[in-house]
Amino acid sequence: MQIISAIADLRSALKGRGRVVFVPTMGNLHAGHISLMEQARGHGDTVVASIFVNRLQFGPNEDFDKYPRTFQADCDKLAAAGVDVLFAPTEADLYPEPQEYTVEPPAIQNILDGEFRPGHFRGVATVVLKLFNIVQPQAAVQLALPIAIVGGETVRAEDGLALSSRNGYLSEAERAEAPRLYKLLNEIRAAIRSGETDTLKLENACMAELASAGWKTDYVAVRQQSDLAMPKGVNAPLVVLAASRLGTTRLIDNIEI
Question: What's the pTM?
């Protein structure tokens, strides 16, 4: 596996490599990331991963400085997964000057997680566009980029907890409690499938149970899958989403209905 940090070197290395498939990450890789690398192999000739902890998507009081950085272990996992090229730029490589031009997502950026993390999705969209322009893969309808976005299922631990780099912040007791979030989301899904139409009641009951167990919840929301708008009924495809803090760790999850 080649490890490259300079943009010019990356573009040179990818010339003549066939169909390039790209998986951007912030490192501290787990099985969920590796599943994406394995999926990528089926969509092209050359698999490129990136590791970059993007300052733009962190708020002023968030965990940018303490975000787990495990570069050598990540390299070992990527090499074992058959990744061909790792792009690992420094901040100076990716932001040689202050990033004054940003990608401004539509109003959907300000609901749910965006309400509680203002500017987060602007930072994500900006760095993803920069990475797309640098890597120039062939595997987003918006912005007319000639790139197909390949989705994958959330990878979970055996007890249902969605894998996340931030799970490492959980204490032993918090880790044992953490699967409650997924359990409650499944209960909401089961209730809707059984005919319950009062989604607000389901949301409030979920938040109440989380609070009784010591969680501090930002939101539990049943929304339309298509646009995350409030549901007009329970017959259209829905998704239930949640963000809640257990101790100092903010956990997010969602399941489709």
Answer: 0.81
Give the model's pLDDT for residue 152. Answer: 83
CA atoms within 13 Å, Cβ hemisphere of 187: 15
Catalytic residue (choose from 30, 33, 43, 120): 33
120 is catalytic: no
Indicate the SS3 state at residue 155. Answer: coil
The more confident residue out of 143 and 32 is 32
Give the model confidence (pLDDT) of 166-184 as tens digits.
999 999 999 999 999 999 9
| Helix boundaries (H) for 42-96 | 71-80, 91-94
Q: Which domains does the chain have, with CATH numbers?
A: 2-144 (3.40.50.620), 165-256 (3.30.1300.10)
Closest by CA to 57, choosing from 95, 3, 19, 96, is: 95
- The answer to whether 70 and 33 have CB atoms below 8 angstroms apart is no
